[in-house]
Amino acid sequence: MGWAIALHGGAGDIPLSLPPENRLPREAALRHCLDVGIAALKAHKHPLDVVELVVRELENHQNFNAGKGSVLTTSGTVEMEACIMDGKTKKCGAVSGLSTVVNAISLARLVMEKTPHIYLAFDGAEAFAREHGLETVDPSHFITPENIERLKLAQEANRVQIDYTQPIQKEVKKDAASADVDSQIGTVGCVAVDNEGNLATATSTGGLVNKMVGRIGDTPIIGAGTYANHLCAVSATGRGEMIIRGTVARDVAAVMEFKGLSLKEAAAYVVEQVPPGNVGLVAVSSTGEVTMPFNTTGMFRACATEDGYSEIGIWPDSPSK
Amino acid sequence: MGGWAIAVHGGAGVDPNLPKERQEEAKRLLAHCLDIGISALRSNLPAIDVVELVVRELETDPLFNSGRGSALTENGTVEMEASIMDGPKRRCGAVSGLTAVKNPVSLARLVMDKSPHSYLAFSGAEEFARKQGVELVDNEYFVTEDNVGMLKLAKEANSILFDYRIPTIGTCGAGAAMDSPLQMNGLPISFYAPETVGCVVVDKEGRCAAATSTGGLMNKMIGRIGDSPLIGAGTYACDLCGVSCTGEGEAIIRSTLAREVAAVMEYKGLNLHEAVDYVIKNRLDEGKAGLIAVSKNGEVACGFNTTGMFRGCATEDGFMEVGIW
């Protein structure tokens, strides 16, 4: 028992040759967000508050694909989505198609708490944000030069990039990443459990580079990218279309419940069912366990438990304390 | 192989005082849609084509809450959503926020077959529709007089009308809906409120498919998305089964109802009927919903914890049934 927290900044084809100027700021951001989450848990904040807080931090960091730093649609615009869920009550909130709301995750929380609905999108969601005085800015706020470049490359390659895909034609060439374009970005998420077994999860993203306008991914779909119940809380990242059809987040909890697997076993099992290179997730259980499996080259991740353990990593077997 | 099987629904939650002629009308439409599905199955159309065909028929008829006859948003407009899923490879397609697409389920199919994505919404979805050359109409096409009346009542009661219904005294259809007072008892009340539609099919090869379509909640907020387009919630199909749900959208989402049926079959080894019973009994908490399901073995099942569900089902061995209660 005891509290536990895990967060991610996206799973994908993160090259081992990732230059320090791209790697270090992200590691620092993960460390910072982990510290924010740990402090909140130590201050006995409810996991719902903790995950929202941490995801807000991740959204504000322009190096991750959420909030500022979101990838661009095929029209060069930003359409953000997010989702939050409380394990005990299974109350949830989701939003899609946001272009001016600074913190999508907070809007998702508002939908959960202030409407009879679960999911609001596009104009309706934006109007709701304004009605409730949520911080909104000009859409240009979210757009970064890296993402403009990334979109350009994707359109030239005439391809849709998943969270972390190198802009090359053939199979993964670890050294062939374009020097100019930093393609190492991804969805963000956070899961937390306190020492009373309260669980929560939150996920936020800008989606796929060069996605069609109006495309919704797995993040705001309860059971796909985000899910929490009395057993565990899960936040997934990777190829949205695969995560949706695999009902990834829901399945982790289902496998624990119906097959009696531990959190680690259940999460590993579910990740294995998805074709390689497509998914990663972070999860915590009601008893304070944590796991962060992925079947991609890497996943920006961090976790900590009350007994003092903490880990920050990108590739398999490369955690740093 | 157990042969083909098909089930359709026109929504869960029925006013016990629903006038007889409305009940007959609904049953006729359900039987008609079943017949269409059965002919298609006999001509060896694959499950995925059959569910689309049948749901198109349900969308086109204004009787139920989808396509024409959809529930209205708070602004009196229509925003439709739908999803479709093909069991064998779990391919899926979904759409939301449609205002001009005549058959949302067909657009969902196109998303699945002709786009790199699984889910498109609002203006992006309609732009895709335009590019694909699907039939587009004015938003007014979908709006029926009955629903304009229902919206007015809902606003007066300042409540949202859910798919399910609570019995009220002295109701007798749309006409009386204008006269009888609505009650505020902590739960929304509706008269003959329109319903989500869906179809599940398993074909002779044992392939399952599912599709669901709706206009959503009466008086819903602009931009509100319900369970119908969410894979795992309102719709799900895999190797084992095909499921389509209806009822309280929020409850269906929270319980990932459609996926749940398949999950207990897959992970607990329950058969279709046991899975449907289990899920309806244990997974809805206070929520009110219903669902139809088929299994790869040619079984068909339905379950609901509401006062009724418009439904019909048929199997290759000649069984056929249409019901409400």
Automatic annotation (TrEMBL), chain A:
It comes from the Eukaryota. The record marks G186, T187 as: Cleavage. Keywords: Autocatalytic cleavage, Hydrolase, Protease. The active site is at T187 (nucleophile). It holds the Pfam family Asparaginase_2. GO terms for biological process: proteolysis. It comes from Durio zibethinus (Durian). The keyword Ligase does not apply. Its EC number is 3.4.19.5. It is an enzyme of class 3 (hydrolase). This is beta-aspartyl-peptidase. One of its GO terms (molecular function) is asparaginase activity. It catalyses: Cleavage of a beta-linked Asp residue from the N-terminus of a polypeptide. Substrate binds at R215, I216, G217, D218, T237, G238, R239, G240. Heterotetramer of two alpha and two beta chains arranged as a dimer of alpha/beta heterodimers.
TrEMBL record, chain B:
The record marks E195, T196 as: Cleavage. Keywords: Autocatalytic cleavage, Hydrolase, Protease. Its EC number is 3.4.19.5. One of its GO terms (biological process) is proteolysis. The active site is at T196 (nucleophile). It catalyses: Cleavage of a beta-linked Asp residue from the N-terminus of a polypeptide. SUPFAM superfamilies: N-terminal nucleophile aminohydrolases (Ntn hydrolases). The keyword Hydrolase applies. GO terms for molecular function: asparaginase activity; beta-aspartyl-peptidase activity. Substrate binds at R224, I225, G226, D227, T246, G247, E248, G249. Signal peptide: none annotated. PANTHER family: ISOASPARTYL PEPTIDASE_L-ASPARAGINASE 2-RELATED, L-ASPARAGINASE. Heterotetramer of two alpha and two beta chains arranged as a dimer of alpha/beta heterodimers. This is beta-aspartyl-peptidase. It comes from Durio zibethinus (Durian).
